[in-house]
Amino acid sequence: MNQQTQQVAIITGASRGIGAAIAKRLAYDGYTVIVNYARQQVEADELVSQIERAGGRALGARGDVSDPATFPMLFDRAEEAFGGVDVLVNNAGIMNLSTLADSDDGLFDRQIAINLRGTFNGLREASRRLRNGGSIVNFSTSVVGMKLETYGVYAATKAAVETLTAILAKELRGRGINVNAVAPGPTGTDLFLKGKPQEVIDRMAKMAPLERLGTPEDIAAAVAFLVGQDGSWINGQVLRANGGLI
User: Fold this and answer.
1) Phi and psi dihedrals of 208, rounded to 5?
2) DSSP single-letter state for residue 131
3) What is the pLDDT of residue 104?
């Protein structure tokens, strides 16, 4: 563990999957991490305990990213406990698949609320309160490039996130803050695996030239690069972490 870095990172949707892998990786790299979760308190508490047992610093914080009050609360908690925030990772997201013809209002509204509004809420607060020299990483999807059937609403929310990413990078001119997005391909998480037959999972695993699904740790490594010193010259970009899928 690198104890030289004493920066503070808020990671949304961090109780499991990619978010948990990001929290572990950044804690290993020396960041103090705020583990945000919406419902999975048991998982979040266990993750905080794991990080602390490994010698890191972590704090759990419940909050629904679609609620405008959540991010002011997260920044308040971080500032009170650790003095400020240097990194925001907007990882929280949901995916509900359907053709456009069969997408009901609830499917549309839920994904807009979490994926788009939730990211916007985080970006708005970070624009006001992130310490100079920090980093923001949003989450998109490689489906924005692939444009697969039934992913329409989900991919549309993420295309909007990519646009917000590029614009905020310009709006934060002069503050030394880089703003980027990671766009995973098929990754072995509950979000991806749930409801898919094994033959579909196997077929999608073979689509990338590297012929496997991504792992949460693969995606966490991309985030760690973007928020670390080696990624400091990368700004306003979308990193497609997908094994060469597209």
Assistant:
1) -80, 150
2) P
3) 98
DSSP state of 210: T
**Residue 19, CA distances (Å) to 25, 76, 221 in order:** 10, 21, 12
CATH number of the CATH domain containing 151: 3.40.50.720
Catalytic residue numbers read: 154
| Amino acid, res. 227 | V
Taking alpha carbons only, the member of 171, 9, 23 closest to residue 74 is 9
In a domain, 142, yes or no: yes
Q: How far is CA 44 from CA 8, 20, 36, 188, in A?
A: 17, 8, 8, 19
Q: What is the pTM of this model?
A: 0.95
Helix (H, G, I), strand (E, B) or coil at 120: helix
226 found inside a domain? yes
Q: Residue 1 domain-assigned?
A: no
pLDDT for residue 2: 47
Domain of residue 121, residue span: 8-239
**Burial of 150 from C-beta contacts in 10 A (0-12 / 13-18 / 19+):** middle
Number of domains in the chain: 1
- The predicted-structure confidence for 2-16, as pLDDT tens digits, reads as follows 444 489 999 999 999
Rounded CA separation 9/196 (Å): 33
What SS3 state is found at 241? Answer: coil
234 token code pair: 């990368």
Section 221-230 average pLDDT: 98
- Give the 3-state secondary structure of residue 60: strand
Q: Answer yes or no: is 106 within a domain.
A: yes
Angle among Cα 176, 21, 19 to the nearest 5 degrees reads 70
